[in-house]
Amino acid sequence: MQFSRRKLLRILAASSASIVVSSGLQGCLFDRNVSSDVAFNHGVASGDPLTDRVILWTRVTPKNPMPVTVNWEVATDVEFNYLVNSGSTNVDEQSDYTLKVDVIGLEPGTTYYYRFTVNGLTSPVGQTKTLSENPEKVKFAVFSCANYPAGFFHVYKEAAKSADMFDAVLHLGDYIYEYDKDDYPEAGTGEAINRVHQPIHECVTLADYRQRYAQYHTDPDLAELHAKVPFICIWDDHEIANDSYADGAENHTVEIEGDFSERKLAAIQAWYEWLPVRTPKVEEDKIKTYRKFEFGSLLSLMLLDTRVIGRDQQLSYLDYFDEEGNLTQPDLLMSDLQNSDRGLLGGEQLLWLETALLDSKSRGVAWQVFGQQVLMARIYIPSSFLRFDPVTGRPDPLNFLTYYEVFVAYQILAKSVVNQLIADGLIESYIAQIEGYELLGQAEQGFVLSELLKLENPDLYDTLFSALSFDEQEAILENGYLLNPQINIKVPYNLDAWDGYDFERESVLNVAKSVGANLVVLSGDSHNSWCNYVTNKEDVKIAIEFGTGSVSSPGLEKDMQIPGGYEAFIENSIVSFVKSVEYCNSSQRGYLTVEFTADEVVSEWYLIEREAEKNPIYPEFELSKRISVSINDKIITNS
To answer: With a threshold of 0.85, does the pTM exceed it?
Structure first.
């Protein structure tokens, strides 16, 4: 959807009024006569760092609605003896009393301290840094999906303890949630932990979104991290409405919430006001938040907008499953996934991305990195997993267990089959008879080899089958068809992710492959932790994907109704079933760190125990997983 010029100018006039470009020092600005007419209730923040500039942010809360003069100082020392920048400006209701200063003329790779004052009242002191011109290493802390009533933001506090290690925080979206108090039952209302959303109704108007951002900014753990390290932010869907796309959202009903374009305009304005992001360049009828950050010859960070600019409406499984939850139109589903008219990025952003990839490689940059929202890897699962209970309208958790029992039984049988075929010198001839064998997952390979042996040598098959236990034989006889890839075909786990936009994903991957990109994809949105290979249709590995878990939002443990104690079973099963997945955590909140050098990228996931986000007591964090990938072979290695 495009914005009209009139609406666009209205946004910019309102949201950029409090943005000031500051290039040097002014005279003494700090009034030491402290006033009680104002407060700094929402902390300070910095963001969008470059080699010579950074955005500084704060918000003033006045007792009375009137313009307020805000002063700022930037120094190279925490005592502010060595000032490098200062200035003042007015803020008022038009910008919701938020202020952003784009401080320019700074030195590369340098730490700075900053503060604001109003009538002698001084804000907390913030610490920020500029990007280095040609760093030997770059380290990010990566976050997404912070739901205020779902739990405490312990994850932000943990990262703040190591803030000096990070060049920047990457926040990949869902910085806030728009729901009303009762619209996200899996997350909870927040009443039990005194974290009920404000306003309690769903955010629709500019005033609603402003109040919701204000509430989040009062969280002490988020405020602490903001004050210690610059943020690089991109939005996801909940900054507007759940499962949003260019012209609407799953969580938007025109008859109730009104015109979607008006709601989106309000949400976008609040986003610019309340986050330390640089005002984007503006072209006719468009606002673009996709942008890139260059870290010398080490990496190019490309932030993508997979929500607002170009996304077509998501496909719905209701159009392909019958009333009993069975997939009845697989051919139509696969055809729709390949529809070249459906996009996720939009034509202009796609062209920009292709140019950015080519430019990065042509300049000899080592790594090309996407910072974006939804999972890019092919997370295809057997369609039987999605067979839903007609009573609840949700997938039955028993679907997974039934498949697992057959999977295990066939693994045992297939091992015997393969060993026998190897011993007889027949394994290569059997594989040669199976079209597309190399594209199948391990389970399907075992199934088709066993079925082929049954056809060609039934006596040998019967001998091997009879060696199985009674339960294993029963599982295969009753549900063995579940491993038949022609009957129980694999389908995308999440149609809201890149899996639902296969044609455009293939276009991006083809470009990355053609330019020889060393591509790493950083993803959020799913509420779970992932490490995946990103492959094209030919199963060629094009990229490595690291997915961060959520700050507080519930994940697969709620979606799949995973009982306590069964998490590892589910996670190991997903890794076994889904060819592209190398690591998955299904139930713990946390964050991801990613460190790049010229030779490798190392990722670490720091997580808390399941449900620990519900407890106000600060929990223990554990290093759940550490993975390294060499730039030479692109192989995921546990380290």
So the answer is: yes
